[in-house]
Amino acid sequence: MKQSLNWQDVSLFLSIARHGGLAGAARETGLSAATLGRRMLALEEAVNRRLFERGARGYALTEAGTDFLSRAADMESAARTIDGWCDGQGLKPRVRISAGDWTMRLIIDHADRIWQPEDMWSPEFLSDLKRRDIARRQVDIGIRNARPTEPWLAGQRVGHVTFCVYRAARFSGRSSAGWIGLSEDQAQSPTAQWIETLHGRDIVVRVNNSFHAVHLMQRHNLLMLLPCFVGDAFTEFQRVGEPVKDLTTERWLVLHQDARYKQPIREAAKAIAGLLKENPRLVSHCRQLSLIPEKLDDFTET
């Protein structure tokens, strides 16, 4: 006899799908991995479909599981809205937007172009190097550097990003003290690899976040590779040479096929696409970082 659907199991399913396994979901829910495993077996029996491929690397969604995920996420959103209504609060639908550090800074700089507090949706901005899974609904909209290949994802090209070497203009005509390199998570980025390959011997300082590199460039006679929408926005920086053609990347706005028909996500995606197609520069972050005294010591030149 077919079991009835347990709505609590749907919530547990979402947690396992987002964490990619039982361990993370166990930490989030407070239930044991064994209990979670049993609940997922019961859920699969209730929906009469296999939702997970179970393996040493965790729980991977099957095709049916991916399909069920989008429906479960809708249920979760509806449940939150009902909870807010019960509490007397009109919760707005949340749209999760993911991008790399600099692109997210760019979007936030121009946030008034894509969203206002009185709008009928609420943004959640997620900035990091992780490739958050849109299929698993970890985010609703992702800004990526390549066209999506998965059939369940929809993509729109919204521009491209060029890179160039920059230095502080006040050091123009003087020999550079060296390069800034990237470490830890950012060490595997194309930018870091280009610097390491061509100028590794000239690296004199490393940072694990390119934001810190900008501060160092303002203080010291150092070279750094930056996206042009970042470097060109700082009036105290100047380009050194032409853009590096090999590093030019496309900029894609990516979302789940099903999400295209949801009004809040559709409105957010349209606004972000319109902004990025204009190839804007950073704004507020530059003014903030420019509040640095003029007289600063630089590294000893060689």
Descriptive tags:
single chain; 302 residues; alpha/beta; Arc Repressor Mutant, subunit A; D-Maltodextrin-Binding Protein, domain 2; 11 helices; disordered C terminus
Walk me through what this model shows:
The chain is built from 11 helices and 12 strands. Helix 7 (190-199) links the parallel strand 8 (179-182) and strand 9. It folds into 3 domains: 7-86, Winged helix-like DNA-binding domain superfamily/Winged helix DNA-binding domain (Arc Repressor Mutant, subunit A); 94-159 and 248-280, D-Maltodextrin-Binding Protein, domain 2 (3-Layer(aba) Sandwich); 163-245, D-Maltodextrin-Binding Protein, domain 2 (3-Layer(aba) Sandwich), CATH 3.40.190. The protein has helices at residues 7-19, 22-29, 33-47, 63-86, 101-109, 111-114, 190-199, 210-219, 228-231, 263-277, 284-289; strands at 52-55, 58-61, 94-99, 122-127, 141-144, 153-161, 163-168, 179-182, 203-207, 224-227, 237-240, 249-256. It is of the alpha/beta class. Strands 4-3-5-12-6 form a 5-stranded mixed beta sheet. Helix content is 39%, strand content 21%. Helix 1 crosses helix 2 (22-29), helix 1 (7-19) crosses helix 3 (33-47) and helix 1 crosses helix 4.
